[in-house]
Amino acid sequence: xxxxxxxxxxxxxxxxxxxxxxxxxxxxxxxxxxxxxxxxxxxxxxxxxxxxxxxxxxxxxxxxxxxxxxxxxxxxxxxxxxxxxxxxxxxxxxxxxxxxxxxxxxxxxxxxxxxxxxxxxxxxxxxxxxxxxxxxxxxxxxxxxxxxxxxxxxxxxxxxxxxx
Length: 164
Hints:
Blueprint: H1 5-16, H2 21-28, H3 32-40, H4 73-84, H5 89-96, H6 100-108, H7 121-132, H8 137-144, H9 148-155
């Protein structure tokens, strides 16, 4: 459904007054992405009405140091155990008041102990054998408390190249 210029102006005014894009999309019978394009002026500029400021996607937005939650070693180990047990990362994150991406960083070794948890030669051989037998990399990641990407690197012999 194409909006008239008057409807575009009314939509922009309602957004400027605080209406949510998703609510405006429902009200006007268009997609939320279309509302976003209209209120920021990516489309229908000539229709008039107030335009919302477009965020600069490339501007750096570092989080203040005080906003980063510091997890104790016990909490980090709890995250690893819960992920290994198959619990959903979003649920773990909600329980601990952190983002799902922080969970991913802990599991991959980018955050937590400062160093990746090394695997023994026996574990590497077990991982490769299980993958060759058809166990999914995702399942292996859960079993070993790491990420699928780490398992992939092990299986493809990108890492632990010395283990035969």
